[in-house]
Automatic annotation (TrEMBL):
GO terms for molecular function: phosphorelay sensor kinase activity. It comes from Blastococcus saxobsidens. The lineage of its organism: Bacteria, Bacillati, Actinomycetota, Actinomycetes, Geodermatophilales. The chain crosses the membrane at residues 159-183. SMART domains: HAMP, HATPase_c, HisKA. This is histidine kinase. Keywords: Kinase, Membrane, Phosphoprotein, Transferase, Transmembrane, Transmembrane helix, Two-component regulatory system.
Amino acid sequence: MRRRLIALLLGLVAVVLVAVEVPLAASYAQSRTQELLIDRTGDTARLARLAAPALARGAVQTLEPEVQAYAGLYGVRVEVRGVDGEVLLSSGGGEEPGTDGGSQALAQALAGRRSSPPPTVLPWRAAPVTVAEPVLRGSEVAGAVVTVSPTGELVRDVVLYWAVLAVAGLLVLGLVAVATWPLSRWILRPVHRLDDAVHTLTTGDLDARAEVGHGPPELRRLIADFNRMAEAIRTSSAQQRALVADVSHQLRNPLTALQLRVDALESGLVPAARGDHRVAMEEIRRLTQVLDDTLAMARAQEDRGAPVAVDVGACVRERLRVWSDAAEAGGTEMQLSAEGSAWVLTPPGALDTVLDAVLHNALRFTPGGTVRVSVGEGPEGRVELLVADDGPGLPSEQCAAATRRFWRGPDQQNVPGSGLGLAIASTLVERCGGTLTVRPAAPHGLCVEVRLPRLEAVPAQSSSTPGLAAR
């Protein structure tokens, strides 16, 4: 942003300089051309007055000393022409009159008029300046005096003046650039602090705040308002999580008491009512599971301490060992593909909870099948963890909804669970700065893809079971 701001300011200054210097450059060239024209017009008129009596006597050669002296002094070609345009006397040397301008000036002089002003002399338009004055004898035109002035010196003056203007403009741009650099830092420093704080806040860290510091008053006020807003969001979120956790916790006691009372009724029921009793117990257990998962979701959203370094491969091997009994009971084979170490930074126990939720979901829908777990390098150097099963899976349009809270597939309403497992896992992964994606597996089944930022600096000390150490 700093470069764009400096470029914008320099662009505006450059536009102003061009708007000022271009008219100055054009005005200087025009004024120098006008000075040359006035000077040559006066000299040509004087020579025309001297030529009038010489032409009347037919002794035009008497003007040669004057013409040669003038031509030698100013480097100007002087010609005395008769009424028919014939050259009667010429100083020689100098430049020939231009074809267009010289003919037009001579025609105007022989018609008894002064020649028209020449165009402004410019570096790319440096034709000689031709001035023609009529030689009058009474009211009749007896001939004309033509002067052809070279414009090399004038062009050099114009180029030098333009160069001075260009150098002055570059110096102004340089001074503006030097002054703009600290000014842009002063303006943008609060913007950068605010940008960092907003980015941190969007990653889930509700304690992110921006230092007010120095800067424009409007930006300092904006940062203060942002900090107040972030504090309000953190307070509201904490109150919401606390409410959910308290309600879930408080409901467990009466629910447990209800479960005990309903369970105690079984011995006094008639055989016909035992089926309804079993249904009631199942609903109570399901409600208990929903409360437990809701409490887990509330805890997953809490900031429970500083993150720790975890070896993903070792943590995966440990969780597969824990879930091996459940997989064996269901006849499910678990396969692991992981090489070396891949360290990430997560809240304590977060990766274990994510793996438990994903593996439990995979084993529940893959009895007698295969669950494949792999750890490798994903895009942008991230650590990629894949858990794929060959169960029934989900259609592509339902995969995006699988991480929503309490979402259940249309054909999974009778499957035990609360619909919070993947939602909890997704929340924890986002807190780690990663992403959790659910997509169909090939040829069938479901694949859960977890990508986490890699920890480049491997910790000096490690545990044989980093997953347990992280907990």
